[in-house]
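Input set for joint prediction.
Command: fold jointly, output tokens.
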Amino acid sequence: MVPTDLLYNKSHEWIQINDNDEATIGISHHAAELLGDIVFIELPSLDDEVKIEDDIAVIESVKTASDLYAPLSGKIIAVNQKLEDNPETINEDPYGEGWIMKIKINNKDEVDDLLKSAEYQASIEED
Amino acid sequence: MPYICHNKDDITQMLDDIGIKSIDDLFTNIPAEIRCDNLNIDSGKDEMQTSLYIKNIAAKNASNIKNFAGGGAYHHYIPSAVWQIASRGEFYTSYTPYQAECSQGTLQTIYEFQSMICALTAMDVSNASLYDGASATAEAVLMAKRINKKNKNSKKVLIPQALNPAYINVIKTTIQNQGFEIELLNYNEKTGTTISPQDNQADDVFALIIPQPNYFGNLEDIDNLTNWAHQNNIIVIAVVNPISLAILKPPAKWGESGADITTGEAQSLGVPLSSGGPYLGFLACKKEFIRQMPGRIVGQTTDEYGKIGYVLTLQAREQHIRRSKATSNICTNQGLMATAATIFLSLLGEDGMIKLAQQNWQQSHQLQQILQQNKYIKILWNAPFFNEFVIQIDDVITVDDLIKSVSNHNIVMGIKLENNYPNLKNCLLITATEMTTCDDMRILSDTINENIKTLC
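tokens >
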């Protein structure tokens, strides 16, 4: 089961809504399993303005290199630098130490369109 | 899939599917005047007759040419062992080494090639080679755009006019539909080297190309150009002659932090001139940029028994995995030519390469001295140069007439510069290598004198 306190979107990112219109973003355990052993991550730059669905990071595994899409529009306010040296953290702890970036949300309406945990769970079971 | 040729119906259906009328429509990008529609061979000739016909045409080619033309493609000695070894079936017929377990020889050769390119350029990593120097440089421009995070929205690449004009054309072709622009940097007409750009020329620029030596053969002020670019957050692309690197400062040591990407043409390393191709491009870079490097890379690893093995590595960047988001649509390498270059470099070794570079320097400087004494010739610049330089012919004769009359004596005089550089009237780019003897040089000078006397 996927954590129930997070939001998701269909391209397998999870989103945690924090105080002050900030959000933490990572990829789901399911996505990490599909990718296999993650060997490299290309993180966005701080202060980048991103629009929803922009590709903002590249996650490379032994099998493929896959884009991470912005689940919300906003400004990048933090990236998880530890992943540059230890990208495998995403496989080991995708919802905790394996968080990828934080953004300052600039359109709260977009949050309403994200999936609840049960909806996301249903969507991956369909796949 | 059966190995049966397509029949007419197959072809018609495939053309219908992609919405064109004929196979020729696929080639409309190639100008009609350079396409070959008719070989002018009568139909009904058998192999023997055709072979004799072609041999008779080939016999009209001049042999034993004294060649003073360079400009990016050079006449060097190729040790017999190079193609004796490269022509072995194991090298000659093998192709893409995707299946590492049965391609160890090919992979190791490429790995050695990469290591030697790194030794010459002092860069951290090299790829497995690209088609030629021009396309490698164009790939480097696209790579520079990807890695320049500081001037993120910049659209321009600064290119010296003193870069090989053929390279400038290939870069134009490659980037013209990607929304990027070329801004040319003028050369100083008194020195034949690139005028240092000013800070206001750095706006909107993501990369600077620095050719060393430049197209005129002259040595550029690489350290200052490199530092200027880095101070303005501009990526530095070095375009170098690999033989010159045996005695010149390697690109990784240029300025305070070195060139970011180094490319060049490695035809000089064991590949014959052969009418312009196949040649051999190389591309090396700083380690931090390896994931944005185009093309194939071979890495060394150990197998489960601890033995050394070689594999294609970092393939996730490449087209067969990353599809349209690959770093480049180049997903092969110039395998056979890279093999020849690897054998050439192995045979010469470090000492041999230094001697070869010195000989090229010496012969071209001697040629300059000899031509300096010819009253019809002016040495245009006195900048330091490596293996070629520019001469201006006295206006009692046109360069075209002189080239033509001298060619009757089996001499290829050099490259006329006026077509690409209208200011360089009656000028020729002229080259000497280790193949140019002192007799050749005197014969050239004497032949020029005789022909001018006869024609004027």
